[in-house]
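Checklist before submission:
- one chain only
- standard amino acids only
- sequence pasted in full

Submission:
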Amino acid sequence: MKPAAPQEAGPPPDWLEELARRLPAGRVLTAPEDLEPYAFDGTAALRTRPAAVVMARTRDEVAATVRFAAERKIPLVGRGSGTGLSGGSVPVAGGLVLCLARMKRILEVDAANLTLSCEPGVLTAEVAAAAEQAGLFYPPDPGSMKISTIGGNVAENSGGLRGLKYGVTRDYVLGLEVVLADGSVVWLGNKCVKDVAGLSLKDLFIGSEGCLGIITRLLLKLVPKPPARRTLLALFGSMEAAAETVSGIIAAKIIPCTLEFLDRTTIGAVEAHARIGLPTEVAALVLMETDGHPAVVEEEAEGMATIAKANGALEVRVAADEAEALRLATARRSAFAALARIRPTTILEDVTVPRSELATMVAFIQATAEKHDLRIATFGHLGDGNLHPTILTDETNAAEMERVEAAIGDIVDETLRLGGTITGEHGVGLAKKPYLRSQLGEEGHALLRRVKAALDPDGILNPGKVHD
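Returned file contents:
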């Protein structure tokens, strides 16, 4: 993505006082120092200050804000914690940010029906903790789960480390309450395990990045907590050996809950950051985790270790206890934070290829780094083909950022050539919008725009993102 100078909203618009009158006191922020934290998300080089931020606390306040924006044709961007990595919650100059982070109640944990109901501002880790307290399990676990909101996860259809076995956020959404672009409110879904009544309308809004409506309540599916878990760490002298191990595990009909990898650069950064004893001289590290019935866990753990060794693993370690397993998982989750310490700007990319193309794609990323004279670390979800090429750069260096832009273009082009997708879990937003048409084709892209026009004819919801 190209570096962008901050865009200012200009003089205060004449509608601010009226908006403040329509909402309870203290809900509308307008001071420059209050607006600044909402001018950006987790994406590098994208920054725009809005005219105002509404800190909604209820569904009715959200609806009132959307109705006001619809009346005045004011651009409106929904937002949770602002942890997104595609520019999806970057505001529009002169527009509104509707922040849902204060809508953070867990409304119900229904153990009889294996469901949890909550507001969108609840942190993902809090959802997982509430489920665990009831002896249940909420599987989606994006790397940002301690700080990202569940509403943002649904809006982006977030993935995570357990995606190979358990799927992504979409697979755990049973119902949504959504405020539409005209301020009307609709509930979609229920607690039923099976429901084929009409189109699955809730799925329109999952992953829609706030372009079709604002989510104000969620009904999530839970599953029984796995009774046992085993974590292994395999070390490899080459990326090819690590990729072959993954192929071998899947071919053996073993579906781990976690199958993650770090390349040498990432391993070094994580070890310098976390100091957990990772060997920094190896080419790749693969974190493997299986869960389920104790007998199955033991069998799968033994099988994965055998396959790793057969494919040339230099060493296979088995976590001795839950504490060690947690340290290993934490090391993987800290990859982005560790890499961010190396250079002033860290651009975390997100592409997915078929598993059979993993070794090819990782080699291409390494060659791309050399071609454009850049430092690129790679880690990700090896089991589902989702890679995170992470470019370590400096957004104040215009010449280097031009090379970054060219490198991202090359990586995306190769991803599509290999039959992959431009984003496996971060979303399209602003950062990936230039590449979406290439993946979908003209007719597919036109269909997206038709859906957007039908639900948001005036284009006020998160304008300029995804569909536009």
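Reviewer check: Residues 1-6 have pLDDT under 50 and may be disordered.
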